[in-house]
C-alpha cells in the first residue's frame, strides 16, 4: 500500500459506479487503478466514456476478468456493484485475497450469505462496508444533534418513510432489478434497504421487537415491486416504510416526537445544489373561546455540502471514510455489523410478507 493512498479497483460496469468513479477522484485519499468486466472491451469502453467527462490523473486500466482485479497487488480495495445474486462469491474471494470490500446494497440475497461474506472479511482482517451514501453526509451528523437536543423533537415516537420511483414498462422485462436470480429482493433490497437503515440509525441501531411486511405487488417470479413494512421497537416506538418501482419518485422521511417533527424530502439522494436541508416543525394549536388558531412554526436547517459531484458530497465522504479505514489498517466492525442488522430486519419483513403479514420476531 502506498502511504496515505487507498488504491481502488471497480468490479463491474454498473451505472452507479459512474457516480463513484468521480467520488474516488474527489476523495483526496483514493486512486482508481483499474475497472474489470468479463469483457475487456466493455471495461475499456466504460473507462473511455468516464475518463472523457471526469479525467483521473492517470487513466485506469481495463481488466478482462474479475480474477485479474482480485489478484492485482497494486490494488488495496474493491468497490463491488455486481448484481446481488453474484456478489457473495466475489466478496469472499476478494476478502481471501486481502482486498478491502465496499459492497453495494442489498449486500446479500439472504442473511446467511451476508454472514459468510462478513465472516470472510473479518477472518482476513479487511474492511467491509455497504454503499449507503447518506450515512456519510454532513447532514446526518447535524440531524443527530437535532434529534438529541430534547426540544426540537422531544421524545421520538414514530418514523415514516417512502422511497419509490415509477419505472417504465420495459423496466419489468429487461432490468436486472426484476430478475429473480440476480436481484431476488427487488424493490425491498434496492430501495427498502435505505428506509430500514435510516430507521435503525435514528434509533441508535436498536433491534425491533417485531416486524410485519406486505407484498403489495410482485413479478410472476415473486420479485417484490411494491412493498410496505412496519417495525415495532421497545418503548412504544414504531417505524413504517414504503418502497416501490410503481409509484412516482419520492424519497422522504418524517420523524415525529412529543414536541415536534422533522421532515427530510430527499434523504437518499439530496436535491441538486450546494446545501442539504431538513425542516423542524413545532406547530401550536391556540384555542381562545371561539377562536381556533393552528399556528405553523417551521424552520429549515441547512448544511453546506454539495448534493453530488463535489469533494463535500456524501458519496465522496463515503469513499474518503473507507479509504481512511484502509490506510489506518484498523477495520471498524461497526460497518459490517449494521449491514448485517439491516439485512436481518429486511429478511424478517419479507418473511412476514410471504406469510400474509404475520408478525415476525427478531
Summarize the structure.
The protein is of the alpha/beta class and 362 residues long. The protein has helices at residues 16-26, 40-53, 66-71, 84-96, 111-124, 138-148, 171-174, 186-202, 314-328, 334-354, and strands at residues 6-11, 30-36, 61-63, 77-80, 100-103, 128-130, 156-166, 210-218, 224-232, 238-244, 246-257, 261-264, 276-281, 284-288, 291-295, 298-303, 360-361. The strands form three sheets. Strands 16-13-12-11-7-10-9-8-17 form a nine-stranded mixed beta sheet. A six-stranded parallel beta sheet has the order 3-2-1-4-5-6, with helices on both faces. A two-stranded antiparallel ribbon has the order 14-15.
Task: Characterise the protein shown here.
Helix 5 (111-124) links the parallel strand 5 and strand 6 (128-130). The strands form three sheets. Strands 16-13-12-11-7-10-9-8-17 form a nine-stranded mixed β-sheet. The longest helix has 21 residues, at 334-354. The protein is of the alpha/beta class. It has helices at residues 16-26, 40-53, 66-71, 84-96, 111-124, 138-148, 171-174, 186-202, 314-328, 334-354; strands at residues 6-11, 30-36, 61-63, 77-80, 100-103, 128-130, 156-166, 210-218, 224-232, 238-244, 246-257, 261-264, 276-281, 284-288, 291-295, 298-303, 360-361. The protein folds into two domains: 6-134, Rossmann fold (3-Layer(aba) Sandwich); 137-314 and 342-361, Dihydrodipicolinate Reductase, domain 2 (2-Layer Sandwich), CATH 3.30.360. The chain starts with 5 loop residues before the first strand and ends with a strand.
